């Protein structure tokens, strides 16, 4: 077991045990936020045929050679095609067909003129300028050509991607199954939100915060409930959770004051503890243990500490598990809005929100930064890093920030 | 009916008919992404009791008056309190109690010292400095005090808010019901993704893109299917959709070339058309009509045009309907990454994505900007505004951009 390692070392240790979830075929309409388990490659052109960009008349460009205001060319309109229909006839010399925006260009025609640019006399139109071959016609495959890669395996399905797949005739999509992740809350002091509070007891908030974050990540949470600080009880519940879920998360019991119940439970189960404690603040107390390829990640019982470790260490792991290729958080540079007065002997992550001011990204603290203060996770969309052995950070200084979920 | 109005005028016209959806009580675990229909006010303190910030011993501060390395004070340890339990005894003169991080401060005690800072000899400890009243003790209500407003009505429920509500004992939450929004796709040329494609036909992508966006907004889509370009058919389907849903969206049939089938269907139904066409590009062809307080919003059939109008005009309306107080899009200033070479006689919105470079927000085009090109909605998270009567825009110029869903 390694102890007091860096965040990056911890990630690398757990990434070695990251089973991909299975794949399943879903109907297109049920793919929002799912992760592609196949490349989406165009099997059709968009548009599927050459089409008109506006309401007008199509004809042979060569028939307009030499045409001018003074010397217009006359065409016989042989057909009028409604939207959604194709011309019955091909266009021959001296003929034109009236079509609408988006309509397929009839055979023989290779130029289009707007309604308002011709003079109509009964079934005849006159065109007073010369056109070139293909002029203004939208060629088949202009937006998307057969063989184009639209979205790679591991991409999250968004609304416009659903639309694109629909336009390409892709009705069934291979996606990764939603993984199941179990949540165990340890602590003799914990009461569920539905229970009355007794002296010395506090409410279990971590289970609900984690349920929310897991659902946001497209994961099905399996709530195992509250467990006493007894290694045998924890071990029984972890074993049961491993049967039901792909990953088990615990909160509490990972620091010395908690009697290290999670580490002892892992030993008791014969699991290998990969590491204990990482060098960040908040969120240092945590561990990962593995048995038969199944992972247990133990988070702090302190709400803010738990969520910072969850975001920085566990979210990339979960995203990787769900099949996402972009599983690492996005790092950006931000400018600190107000002084942060405390020194940072250890590598520290500040909770904050992004503000956009004059084309700049400003980071504003979301409040009190204590280990236990969940309130400052409200509205928090970035964690800004202060390197170890730093003094106070002044307003206007630049920090690297990690965009969180 | 007003014609060719501004985006803002169009919004103001439809906002006048924006029925709020009903309210319902949900269990806390089922509130993610729902909109609060009540203020969340703390009815308890967090922490609920004064507690110790670390593993240590508590005692009366006054007993340490004059204590020093040379002249330590000795306490009798009368009890050891496990996590989650409260002391059985009060602390009197000369007494101390051993407690763990987070444990409630026993009656009588008003100072705490860390384990590692005392000398233990059997049941006695010696403390070698003077403490002040309340020193290092976390007072009840330090994070959240009874009466604090945690989240206002109209706020979206996030994971940390779920956790905070759990910690405050709020098991049932009043939220707005998910509205139902119907989607009708008009066009003789449309085929569903599951149907074979015939000459001159194209696939219906708008219905799937809209389903995705609606689900992202927490709305239940009601898919009414494809309708021919015939006002009577459209009218029947709109009436049916109004019965099933709180809002009806159509795509197609809103420009002259489409025979204006939506406007004629609205007239046929006796609905009042509020406006037809707005002055933006893409997405100019659109309309809104109302009958008996129910709204019909007609979007373009061109995929990109439809989605730009949907994002700019319809999303704020839908958010308002769902009870959100932050229903207007967030506007930020961005710096254009590459030249946009076309002039913009009309107010134009460019599709792009935000890049963060050196603390700046850069906008990169997501591709071809044509009315019909859905592909550039992929990865699009902002729409950047170019004012009307603008020339080409150069790389490095600043634009106002609207953050979209």
Automatic annotation (TrEMBL), chains A, B:
It holds the Pfam family MoCF_biosynth. InterPro entries: MoaB/Mog-like_dom_sf (IPR036425), MoaB/Mog_dom (IPR001453), MoeA-like (IPR038987), MoeA_C_domain_IV (IPR005111), MoeA_C_domain_IV_sf (IPR036688), MoeA_linker/N (IPR005110), MoeA_linker/N_sf (IPR036135). SMART domains: MoCF_biosynth. It catalyses: adenylyl-molybdopterin + molybdate = Mo-molybdopterin + AMP + H(+). Keywords: Magnesium, Metal-binding, Molybdenum, Molybdenum cofactor biosynthesis, Transferase. It is an enzyme of class 2 (transferase). Its EC number is 2.10.1.1. Its cofactor is Mg(2+). Residues 182-320 form the MoaB/Mog domain. Pathway: Cofactor biosynthesis; molybdopterin biosynthesis. Gene3D superfamilies: MoaB/Mog-like domain (3.40.980.10), MoeA, C-terminal, domain IV (2.40.340.10), Molybdopterin biosynthesis moea protein, domain 2 (3.90.105.10), Molybdopterin biosynthesis moea protein, domain 3 (2.170.190.11). CDD domains: MoeA. The keyword Amino-acid biosynthesis does not apply. The keyword Magnesium applies. Catalyzes the insertion of molybdate into adenylated molybdopterin with the concomitant release of AMP. Belongs to the MoeA family. This is Molybdopterin molybdenumtransferase. It comes from Dehalobacter restrictus (strain DSM 9455 / PER-K23).
